[in-house]
Design brief:
Layout (H helix, E strand, L loop, with lengths): L6 E5 L10 E7 L5 H7 L6 E7 L5 H13 L4 E6 L5 H11 L4 E5 L3 E3 L4 H10 L4 E3 L2 E2 L10 H10 L4 H4 L11 E5 H6 L12 H10 L4 E3 L4 E3 L5 H26 L3 H10 L4 H13 L5 H16 L4
Parallel strand pairs: 2-3, 2-5, 3-4, 7-10, 8-11
Antiparallel strand pairs: 1-4, 5-9, 6-11, 7-9
Helix pairs in contact: 5-12, 9-12, 10-12, 11-12
Organism: Caulobacter radicis
Protein name: Glycosyl transferase
InterPro entries: Glyco_trans_2-like, Nucleotide-diphossugar_trans
Length: 309
């Protein structure tokens, strides 16, 4: 029988007396969030920070995070899990520690773009928005050859301005930079049936959109954590089961997405087991042109998803 997940909680000196309006929630799994924590620190207690180590098992990293959290001027709490809970349950656990009326989910590999990043989010929270997504960029992300494919794909499909995101509000919601009013999240939490990487945030937004408007604003943060192509492929392979879960629950919504339509078309092509590995091989070939690799990676993802449509 698997032992239950336990938590170890450490607060800094400013935590106990604070009454924050905004709770910044940062999950991490073997990623170093210290640059983000330094960028978010400030003298006011209008916003608090909660960091969750999702069972990463890296004692040296945990010690660095704990030391930094202890020295922050802003109210902060560090939560360590005894083992990995996963992306959905981890975020639900983070929300349970929050005290603000609004929750701001930020991935640990993000870095705010505007200097008044938290002030802008506090203004959106002051308008009592139920859900808002701020967007992300690659403006501060180092350019590295091994990340060329991920950079090209992210710039094309993910780094989009608010008016474009607003055309399909639930599709362009990621937990990388997401504001949620507490009572909305208490009613509609992340589905802990999702495992591994992918789709748990979009599926959550599909459920939220049935009851609340989703606001898109331009208050971006840079995504620092680009992946090499083999890691991207592994994540897409891992996400196929999650995509199937989304299709089962929200076919009426997801059937309008290009990824679904391409997957549907590829399902009719025979011998997928023969040609699908070739798409992956092209995507991983660093000597080939990046646009060709990106096209092949998108087709490979759709081919993986074709089993679910």
């Amino acid at each position: 029988m698997t032992a239950p997940i336990t938590e170890t909680v450490t607060d800094n000196a400013a935590w106990s007396t604070a009454a924050p309006r905004l709770s910044v929630l940062i999950p991490t799994f073997r990623d170093d969030p210290t640059a983000l924590l330094r960028a978010l620190d400030g003298k006011d207690d209008k916003a608090e920070i909660v960091v969750l180590d999702d069972g990463g098992g890296d004692e040296a990293l945990a010690a660095r995070i704990g030391k930094l959290v202890a020295g922050l001027k802003r109210p902060a709490r560090f939560v360590r899990l005894s083992r990995n809970a996963g992306r959905a349950q981890g975020r639900n656990r983070l929300a349970a520690h929050a005290r603000g009326r609004h929750l701001l989910f930020l991935d640990s590999d993000m870095l705010p773009d505007p200097k008044d990043f938290l002030a802008r989010w506090l203004a959106v929270a002051g308008d009592d928005a139920p859900v808002a997504f701020g967007g992300f960029t690659l403006d501060q992300t180092p350019i590295r050859p091994e990340h060329a494919l991920h950079r090209a794909m992210a710039l094309k499909s993910d780094c989009t301005p608010a008016p474009q995101r607003a055309q399909a509000p639930e599709k362009h919601v990621f937990t990388s930079n997401l504001l949620v009013r507490r009572n909305v999240f208490e009613t509609i939490a992340f589905d802990e049936g999702f495992a591994g990487w992918g789709w748990e945030d979009v599926e959550w937004a599909m459920r939220v959109a049935r009851a609340h408007p989703i606001l898109h604003v331009d208050n971006t943060a840079t995504h620092l954590g680009l992946d090499p192509a083999p890691v991207m492929a592994a994540k897409y392979e891992q996400s196929a089961a999650n995509f199937a879960r989304v299709v089962a629950a929200h076919r009426d919504v997801v059937s309008a997405y290009p990824s679904y339509k391409v997957a549907k078309a590829l399902k009719a092509v025979p011998l997928r087991g023969t040609w699908r590995p070739w798409l992956k091989a092209i995507a991983l070939a660093e000597n080939l042109p990046t646009p060709l690799r990106a096209f092949s990676m998108r087709l490979y993802r759709a081919a993986l998803y074709s089993d679910a449509v």
